[in-house]
COKA1 protein
Amino acid sequence: GLSQYSSDPRTEWDLSSYSTREQVLEAVRSLRYKGGNTFTGLALTHVLEQNLKPDAGARLEAEKLVILLTDGKSQDDANLAAQTLKNLGIEIFAIGVKNADEAELRQVASEPLELTVYNVLDFPLLSSLVGRLTRVLCTRIKERSHKETTDTPVNMGPQLSPTDLKISAVTSKSMHLAWSPPLRPPKKYRVVYYPSKGGTPKEVVLEGAVSSLQLSNLTSHTEYVVSVIPVHDTATGDGLRGVTSTLPLSSPRSLRVSELSHNSLRLSWKAAQGATHYLVLCSAAPDGAED
């Protein structure tokens, strides 16, 4: 499976989309590069929420590996998102190109770092990694598959997944989130929210006993994407996702002009709720315009 990201992650194809090597290679050849920002944390969250699910082709018994390829330093908290994946038994390999931050790659990647972190000076040099990376990946899958361990992520549907996300009390600056907890409460919830047209994602971590949150200090008249992700000790449930727009700021109404003289006039209007100041702009009308 493959996803590209900038400020908004995009799934190019799921784990179940292709069944042969030739189909995958053809999809790679047809891939269009997605430029833009570098929100690596949001991309890793997208992979967990969207790509490592049974309905996207993830088999419960299979080992889960994520290969991160980046050419820059993340503009959000990549380490926190990566830690969530690693806590769920998902192994991360980090490959940096050009301006990638070596320290960040080492934070994001799984141990042992000598096998999971790679860095090259330019894109053509990635070809030099293919042979070694292939051998390492195959070896790691075999090693992990032969170990009987309890920390392999398992999706148990309703037992682990919250439902019924409700977004209410929406104002120009805030909104209230509430959801129904799963049958087995998670250890924590990660609530990630960001403007749908691009912007820095923000995250709130809640204890598993909490099932509501007030989001404040939002931007007015803006569409927000909200995700609620349950984090369990040994498994992952499906996250909830919602989209809601904050209200526009209220405007002054009923502008009236009075007390006209040769060099003055009086303006009056109905107040805008919540306004602390007004900015009044005045300029001469162009010739021929209404007085």
